[in-house]
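Slide 14.
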Amino acid sequence: MSNQRCPPAEIWLRGNVRPVVALAAVAAVVLAGCIAATTLTDAGLRLRPAVAAASAALAAAVGLLAVVASRPRLLLARDALLVRLSPTRVERLPLDVAECFFPGSHPLTRSGGPTCEHHAAFRVNTLVLRLAERAEDYRARPTFTPWGTWDDSYVVFDGRWCEPLSPELARRLGRLLVDAKRAAAAAGAKA
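Slide 15: predicted structure.
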């Protein structure tokens, strides 16, 4: 039995709590209004316990969202990438299945939803991880669509829910992928 510990996973793409912070600010304003309303009227005194309970539940929900949103989207763990495109699931992707990273973008309407290419109000940056076509078992996975998609051997990370995306980040991740594959191949050759 070995006393060696597994090295910790290396974070390659961080999560983003900015949308949750905006939600928290809106929730704080709404709750402040409710609290003010309950203190200004006699009927409000009876509602104080309910407002306090709702405030605690909302604060807990926003806190949980912040924790979930801040989790890394992509990690290296030895000979695999750990892909988190769902609050409840992490997919293990063998390094030899990952081919390359490249920057992309996705058209959006003003409401934030997808739209057709020709009528986009604005675009959001994405990061695309292309998978080997031979890897039939990894062609698609269920995801939380606002965070990204995994379909037809492409894993797409949405820039609104991860650290800011750029062509330089895609190049850096590409170099990290090559280095990780070389290290895994060297470790496999030694074994």
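Speaker note: Residues 95-190 form one domain.
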